[in-house]
Amino acid sequence: MYSINNSETIQYNLRDYDKVKATFSWKYCARELSGLPDGKGLNIAHEAVDRHAQNHLKDTVALRFIKKDRSTEDFTYSDLKIQSSKFANVLKKLKVKKGERVFSLTGRIPELYITALGTLKYTAVFCPLFSVFGPEPIYQRVSKGDVTLLVTTSKLYEKKVKQLVERLPSLQYIILTDATEHLSDKILSFSTLMDQAGTDFKIPETNPEDAALLHFTSGTTGMPKGVLHVHHAVFTHYITGKYVLDFHEGDRFWCTADPGWVTGTSYGIIAPLVCGVTSIIDEAEFNAIRWYSILEEQKVTTWYTAPTAIRRLMRMEDIKPKEAYNLENLKSILSVGEPLNAEAVIWGEENFGFPILDNWWQTETGGIMIANYPSMKVKPGSMGKPLPGVEIAIAQVNGKQLKIITDPNVQGQLVLKKGFPSLFRAYLHEEERYKKCFIGEWYLSGDLAKKDAEGYFWFIGRADDIIKTSGHMVGPFEVESTLMRHPAVAEVAVIGKPEPNIGELVKAFVVLKDGNEANEQMKMDIIGFARKEMGPAVAPKEIEFVESVPKTRSGKILRRLLKARELGLPEGDISTLEES
Ligand code: ATP
Ligand code: MG
Q1: Which ligand 1 atom is nearest residue 461's CA?
Q2: Does some domain include residue 491?
Q3: Domain total for the chain?
Q4: Angle at 355 between CA 341 and CA 274, to 5 degrees
Q5: Cα angle at 180 between 175 and 183, to 5 degrees?
Q6: 424 and 488 housed in the same domain
Q7: Could you give one GO CC term from the UniProt record (predicted)?
Q8: How wide is the angle at C-alpha 442 spanned by C-alphas 464 and 232, nearest 5°?
Q9: Element (H, E) at 315
Q10: What pairs with residue 75 in β-bridges?
């Protein structure tokens, strides 16, 4: 129990949402986190690492790496303090300046985490990239981000980076995680630098408004944007760790997000450390059997993943996780990135004994903003309720006019009131685009949603994806969720296809579950099912069977790509497309 306003008490795990929401103040975080010694400001790495290295958590495992071969390597909070200090000293030696950009291009290896935390300590800006990016997407991002230093592996350097170096005048150093010696004055060895670096580093004065993180968005709706966050964002990491992820000391948390995506930093690195729990990090990519066995072996208590992974597990109908594995330590599973169909929430309940908790946020918000809290009644298909400390509403947006809708169940744009610490401070080098996201004190998310009478938010779709058919506004997610309930459907993506008579026609791309035949009969069956469930006006009129639907690396369905292909238009930016 923590005291707030002296008279009120709030609990770690948000047992009484309404009360906490009513009394919450961000000042609470200022009391909980220590801030830099001598009042020298607020630094994410201090809160995540150094603070715990000085208290009773110093010998607690902060990060446990599971390598591809299943061997493990542990770093306690003390170890992590030393390693991140060493890396900060490396940056000092290389004369990197405060605010300059340090990029990473690696998989989930210890060097990535040490780079991230050392960079934050040093008060340079950390920017992770997906290691699967090809040379051009890498070039676009590092050049837009004015890269000073890049940490990568020898293989990725040879294959993807070497050819770009001439075109990157701001790039001063490349540090190779696996080189045993420096290759030149510019291409350096991580281990050599670290061996020579001192273990003590005094974090310089850090203003909470100092830039800390640069993340590129998923590129679902177009060219990815470079989103800038400041050290103050750690308040959101902390609060969401306590309330949404429900962290308690001794917890073992596993976040499966790729480190190149904002979730990989906010929850793959920062939030669990700030809350003093143990993070499990698996180097390998998705594999259902491996994943279930890691949950069991590592006694994972809290698992954070994405709808695409959950749907893949659901497809493996012959594995009953609760029967096949001992998952008694697992107390919650959370999901982000895409709408989580009600089906999946219920599947969680049936297969794990608790519903899967959906939550909503964006690169721009820096942390979870709407959530189903562990203590709250879950309405399957809903994103849940706003984070205490953040005002979220549904608004009608008309040009520069914004009107908050107070009636329940009315569809509109999801808007967030400025003033919470992790809201982004810039789209790098795109000031106009940034300004366009705000009307007065409201940030426009670009997503459509509605709020019910009990205050739960329901996702409708991205404003760009909404289908206008015969005078109806149809969100693709609503149609996809219905089709997912058909027993033969494994995955589905829905788009609007221009059609002169009705505006747009609803078309579904369907992946069938194994053992089902893709034929006319099946098409009729699925269309019939949808018509019965949702009415003929919004049910799909066209179905195409596909082997897979295109997704971003962060697991989001690229509907705009399906649409471009359907219409024979250029594919646009597909740098984040996951090869299937
Ligand atoms: P870009 O902005 O480049 O088009 P993106 O919006 O996909 O890409 P992210 O910031 O990674 O990039 O994703 C945030 C978006 O993901 C949200 O705006 C929303 O559309 C979707 N999203 C995230 N979580 C959920 C959720 N729980 N339910 C529904 N949609 C979600
Ligand atoms: Mg977006």
Answers
A1: 20
A2: yes
A3: 2
A4: 100
A5: 55
A6: no
A7: cytosol
A8: 105
A9: helix 307-315
A10: 63
368 and 474 both lie in a single domain: no
- Residue 476 and residue 446 in one domain: no
Cβ pair 216, 141 in contact under 8 A: yes
The answer to whether residues 230 and 132 belong to one domain is yes
Within this chain, do residues 509 and 393 fall inside the same structural domain, yes or no? no
| pLDDT more than 70, % of the chain | 97
Give 264-296 pLDDT, tens digit per residue.
999 999 999 999 999 999 999 888 899 999 999
The CATH number assigned to the domain holding 99 equals 3.40.50.12780
Assess whether the C-beta atom of 553 lies below 6 angstroms from ligand 1: no
Whether residue 392 contacts residue 449, with contact meaning beta carbons closer than 8 Å, is answered with no
Q: Which residues of 159-172 are buried (b: 16+ CB within 10 A; e: fewer)?
A: ebbeebeeebeebb
User: Read out DSSP for 63-88?
Assistant: EEEE-TTS-EEEEEHHHHHHHHHHHH
User: Residue 386: helix, strand or coil by DSSP?
Assistant: strand
Closest ligand 1 atom to 445 CA: 18
Q: 167 lies in which domain range?
A: 17-450
The verdict on the CB of residue 224 being under 6 Å from ligand 1 is yes
SS3 readout for 436-502 = CCEECCEEEEEEEEEECCCCCEEEEEEHHHCEEECCEEECHHHHHHHHHCCCCEEEEEEEEEEECCC
Assembly ipTM: 0.99
The pLDDT value given to residue 1: 27
Same domain, 414 and 494: no
Tell whether the model's pLDDT for residue 374 goes beyond 90: no
- Dump pLDDT digits (tens) for 553-569: 878 899 999 999 999 99
SS3 state of residue 281: strand
Strands (E), 131-216: 147-152, 173-176, 187-189, 211-216
d(CA 77, CA 50): 8
Last residue of a domain, one of 415, 450, 485: 450
CA of 579 to the centre of ligand 2 (A): 21
State which of 140, 141, 213, 217 you would mutate to test the pocket of ligand 1, scoring each by most atoms of that ligand within 8 A of its C-beta.
Answer: 217
Residue located via tokens 């369907």: 510
Q: Which residues pair with 214 in a beta bridge?
A: 228
10 in any annotated domain: no
- Higher pLDDT pick, 464 / 293: 293
Tell me whether residue 307 is in a domain.
yes
Residues 37 and 184 in one domain: yes
Question: What CATH number did the domain enclosing 543 receive?
Answer: 3.30.300.30
Average pLDDT, the chain: 93
User: Is 59 in contact with 283 (CB distance < 8 Å)?
Assistant: no
Tell me whether residue 562 is in a domain.
no
What integer pLDDT is reported at residue 2 of this predicted model? 31
Distance, CA of 427 to chain centre: 17
20 and 10 Cβ atoms separated by less than 8 Å? yes
Give the ligand whose atoms come closest to the C-alpha of residue 223.
Answer: 1
Q: Residues 489, 354: one domain? A: no
Instruction: Check pLDDT > 80 for residue 433.
Output: yes
Q: How far is the CA of 343 from the centre of ligand 2 (A)?
A: 25
User: Which has the higher per-residue pLDDT, 486 or 572?
Assistant: 486
Neighbour-count burial for 218-236, b at 16+ CB within 10 Å, e otherwise: bbbbeebbbbbbbbbbbbb
